[in-house]
Amino acid sequence: MGTALGILLSKAGHEIVSAFDIDAGAREAFSKVLSTNVAGRLDDSLVGPDVILISVPDGAIEDVSRGISCCRGLKEEVFVGHTSGALSSESLHHVKAKGCATFSMHPIQTFSNLESAVKAIPQSYFGIEGDPEALKLVEKIVTSIGGKPLLMNPDFKPLYHAALCVASNFLVTLLDMAVKLCQGAGIEKERALEVMLPLIETTISNFEQSGTNALTGPIERGDADTLKRQLKGIGILEPAMMPAYLALARATVSVAQEKGSITEDQARLLLKTFESVDKQSLRE
Predict the structure, then answer these.
(1) Is 99 a member of any domain?
(2) Are residues 7 and 122 in the same domain?
(3) Are residues 48 and 114 in the same domain?
(4) Which among 109, 112, 94, 149 has a CA at the least distance from the CA of 127?
């Protein structure tokens, strides 16, 4: 993410004064795509910048903030931010204590490689929050690379990040589950994905247009008999998937009720069906 942002910021006319990484390979990779000073010491990377952007794993942010706060070259008027989705700018309290305005700017996007990151970021929203004096600058930075700033309440960032994990990380798990169920039904893996992609794309399109009204299927129809047959098949061929399937099925009952497509009695019958499967699993 850090390298992708560096490329986009440079293209937008911002000067990348320097960069730092503890890993020599990462420093070399960064220097290949951006002609800038890539320092081997943190202190050496703080000469000249007006903005310091920390793009490291969440668990390292406070350590980096502490390290920056101890550097002789740190200026009070420097803005310091990070790109974490789960942590707020409060995790930069070490540099804030040194008089720096702090912020976070998190691209709401998934990155599998550098090329896809550079391509995807300009069309993405950024969750931003921080000191008032930093936010105007952050909005300009985000919009300069084609992003869309979304002002966040820092107290709710963990919930915000959980939502994004459901939308992206759990979606991958869900699709993998669907592929494996197809394999259990005798459809080859590559063929299974090919068969389901039109369904997936249409579902996303329908949800974009009408939200939970896009829900279809046996739960939306209150069809307990079909669900019993599904559950029996999963129990025989893919029993390890049963807990995840039941959790999703129960959540889908709530969606169907919210949509108004099933009655309270139908919902109760469906939940009773799932409960009986749970009890049987415990006995086994």
Answers:
(1) yes
(2) yes
(3) yes
(4) 149
Determine if the pTM surpasses 0.85.
Answer: yes
Rounded-to-integer distance, Cα 48 and Cα 73, Å:
9
Q: What percent of the chain has pLDDT over 70?
A: 98
Residue with token string 């394999």: 183
Q: Are 19 and 34 in contact (CB under 8 A)?
A: yes
Verify that 12 and 88 share a domain, yes or no: yes
**Are residue 175 and residue 131 in the same domain, yes or no?**
no
* 5-39 pLDDT tens trace: 999 999 999 999 889 998 888 888 888 888 787 88
The torsion defined by the Cα of 74, 137, 167 and 170, in degrees rounded to 10, comes to -10
Q: Which two tokens stand for residue 54?
A: 């920390």
d(C-alpha 50, C-alpha 42), whole Å: 16
**Is 20 in the same domain as 81?**
yes
- Short-list 107, 108, 161, 105, CA closest to 128: 105
Q: If DSSP codes are grouped into helix, strand and coil, which group holds residue 150? A: strand
Total count of domains within the chain: 2
Long-range CB contacts (within 8 A, 24+) of 12-21: 12/144, 12/145, 13/144, 14/141, 14/144, 17/47, 17/48, 17/49, 18/44, 18/45, 18/46, 18/47, 18/48, 18/49, 19/45, 20/44, 20/45
What is the span of the domain harbouring residue 119?
A: 2-153
Alpha helix ranges (H) inside the chain = 2-11, 24-33, 61-69, 93-96, 114-120, 132-144, 157-167, 169-184, 189-210, 218-221, 224-237, 242-259, 264-283
